[in-house]
Amino acid sequence: MNDHIIKVENLVKRFGKLVAVDNISFSVAAGEIFGLLGPNGAGKTTTINILCTLTRPTSGQATIAGLDVVRQQSQVRRLIGLVFQDPSLDERLSGLQNLRFHGLVYGVPAAVREPRMEQLLRMVELWDKRHHKVQTYSGGMKRRLELARGLLHHPKVLFLDEPTLGLDPQTRNRIWEYILELREREGTTIFLTTHYMDEAEKADRIAIIDYGKLIAMDTPEKLKKMVGRDIISVKTDDNDKASTEIKLRYQIEARYDGDGLSFEVANGEEFLPTFLKEFGTRILRVSLRRPSLDDVFLKLTGREIREEEVSDTFRAMIRQHGRRMRR
Amino acid sequence: MNHLRGVYTIWYRDILRFWHDRMRLVGSITFPLLFLFVFGSGLSARMGVLGPGVDFTQFIFPGIIGMTVLMSSFMAGVSVVWDREFGFLKEVLVAPISRAAVAAGKTLGSATIALLQGMVILLFAPLIGVSLSVGTVLTLLPLMFLLAVSLGSLGVLMATRIRSMEAFQAAMQMLMFPMVFLSGAFFPVQGLPTWMNVLVKVNPATYGITPIRQVVLGADPSSPYAISLFGQTLTIWNEVAMLAIFGITMILLAIWSFGNQE
Questions:
Q1: Does the distance separating the beta carbons of B9 and A105 come in below 8 Å?
Q2: Was domain A229-290 assigned CATH 1.20.140.10?
Q3: Do A93 and B2 touch (CB under 8 A)?
Q4: How far apart are CA A273 and CA A156, in angstroms?
Q5: Which residues of chain A lie closer than 8 angstroms to B98, CB-CB?
Q6: Which DSSP string corresponds to A165-209?
Q7: Domain that residue B89 falls in
Q8: Counting one residue from A and one from B, how many pairs have CB atoms under 8 Å apart?
Q9: Does B97 reach chain A within 8 Å, measured CB to CB?
Q10: For site-directed labelling of B123, which of A167, A220, A281, B173 has its Cα 20 to 30 A away?
């Protein structure tokens, strides 16, 4: 086997005139957490659907563990686990029955399946609720159950399409704990899409996608370094004087920012101690901000990734409704 | 092997859901029983004898069995549309089982439930003075099953193209009731006006319900239960063959259509 468990080469998907995925190539190493980041409609879900054999690409190639996602569909399906954006559980059955169904469909032998079901349900803290119908679960519980289900057949790659969309911050953190624990324990490769910047930071590597094109791909750290520099905000007893002094001492132009000043430096952590020593008690307040992935996206596209975001619950509602109307 | 496991799993889930929802059984036989006892008893006295020693209630009894099976087997389509609406279909479609297995599993699941419901109706035979031997019942089961599988695959086929629950239900009503009324379930099919005769003869349900009646009430070719096509009186085997051809066509179309949806 090679090191790259997912390989995508020149992938294109057109829907009529719309180019949803526009000639993208990348690969993901085994055991990596790989994040596909981009605004809604950028092509994230289409990419995931191609990789998990639900949509056929217009052209290009994608392989998982060396298996072609078009020609070797059913072998690929055996190797992957999925958690979709929208719930895909049988609400009339219990949590346990949903898992058992999954195990049966994936051909997991009962001797492996039953203990594994318990282990996973305990991991996502649903063991006590295992006999309850899924109908009675909250949104977060459903997502956790789907996570457990996606892992039941020991997939090599777990695909998570917006795994925490519409969940409250507490539940989001919990889901992330499971994801990180999972990689630790089972070495599963995790491929996820998200439009939450803070979530993308947890990935080992990120690819940023916009209008179907990959516009950047690297570790979150390196991507942020690419935008540049750390931002220092400071408030002093005399901002005008401080501004002149900063220019003289470090040749840096400071901007007025609210009731204080802000300026950029290459390495904030090293700069700050010297700065504090030299300005001493004149400083009333100081803060150091590292560039975020938001800044990266802004720099690359000139837009904020979440500017069009109304509210996730509202969007989820519209989607639910729209799906009904469309089909 | 892989295919069989897929078919079995899909079938098993539908049976499990049915088991959880046993009230459905009561609901689905209420309507046929109303027909049988209210409609039947109400009209029996006025209709006189519709066959050798057979009154109206006894005459429609096999028709009611056929109707129950037919209506319930259409649920295969409803459950596909339902699964799509609730997202569960996606879980099934990304699983390492073939689409053909999914379509077959759905059809067989609803056919099993339809058969069960038809059997419940059979239990009422003594109440209306129809005596059924073990042999008769054993002959009826495969006939009912064939009817259920044929119309169940039609339901699945429709569900691959009609995607909203509302539209599917409308289409189902539009198809189901004419199929029941024009199958000879409620009246003898001899001496009908030409337009009606044509509709009865092109209706696949006719070839499912007529043999059920012939098995229950008598298969004598000269009896009023037999039907003829192009001047030929059909035997039970002819009728079964016609329904089987329809059923196989529907299964193949359903499997093909199911495999072709994204």
A1: yes
A2: no
A3: no
A4: 46
A5: 74
A6: TT--HHHHHHHHHHHHHHHHHH--EEEEEES-HHHHTTSSEEEEE
A7: 2-259
A8: 73
A9: yes
A10: B173
| ipTM confidence score | 0.82
Question: Are the beta carbons of A102 and A95 closer than 8 angstroms?
Answer: no
The one-digit pLDDT tens for each residue of chain B (262 residues) are 578 888 999 999 999 988 888 887 888 888 899 988 888 888 887 877 777 778 888 999 999 999 999 999 988 899 999 999 888 998 998 898 888 999 999 999 999 999 999 999 999 998 988 888 899 999 999 999 999 999 999 999 999 998 899 999 999 989 999 999 999 888 888 888 889 989 999 999 999 999 999 998 876 766 778 888 887 888 888 899 999 999 999 999 999 998 877 5
> Best interface-test mutation with B: which of A67, A101, A105 has the largest number of B CBs within 10 A?
A105
- Mutate which of A69, A72, A90 to disrupt the B interface (most B C-beta within 10 Å)? A90
Q: What domain count does chain B have?
A: 1
Interface membership of A189 toward B (CB under 8 Å) = no
Q: Which CATH superfamily is domain A4-224 in?
A: P-loop containing nucleotide triphosphate hydrolases (3.40.50.300)
On chain B, the residues whose CB falls within 8 A of the CB of A149 are 91
Name the token pair of B5: 């496991």
* Domain spans of chain A, in order of start: 4-224, 229-290
Contact B9 A101 (CB under 8 A): yes
The CA–CA distances, whole Å, from B43 to B30, B39, B68, B79 equal 19, 6, 20, 36
- Say if the Cβ atoms of B87 and A101 lie within 8 Å: no
